Amino acid sequence: MLAHAAPARAQVREVGLGDVLAAAASANQEALQADQAARAAQAEANSALGHFGPSLRAEGNYIYWEEAQQVSLSGGSGGATPALPHLRPPMKPSWLA
After folding, report:
1. What is the percent of the chain with per-residue pLDDT over 90, rounded to a whole number?
2. Best CA proximity match to 17, nearest among 25, 9, 8
3. What's the domain range around 25?
4. 26 lies in a domain?
5. Total tally of structural domains belonging to the chain
6. What is the DSSP string of 32-89?
C-alpha cells in the first residue's frame, strides 16, 4: 500500500498591476518627489489659467428685527416732519419657525 501525501498549498494572494505600481512608488523617494513636482506644476498652470477667465463676486446683507421699528425724521429747516408709518417686523423665515 502506498500512502499519498497531500500536496502543500501555499497562501496565494492576487495582486493587481495597480497594487504593484503603488508599492513600488511608495518605496521610491525619487518617484514620490517627481510626482509632487508634477502636481505642483499642474496646480500652478491651473491657477494661471484661472486668471484669464471672467470672475464673479457676490455679496449680501441680511437684517432681521423682532420688534416694530419707528422712524422719526426731524424737520431740518423748520418744515413739518412728514408722517411715516411704523415699520412692521418682517415675517419670520420658514427655517426659523
Report:
1. 13
2. 25
3. 16-49
4. yes
5. 1
6. HHHHHHHHHHHHHHHHHHHTTS------------SS-B------TTSPPPPP-PPBPP
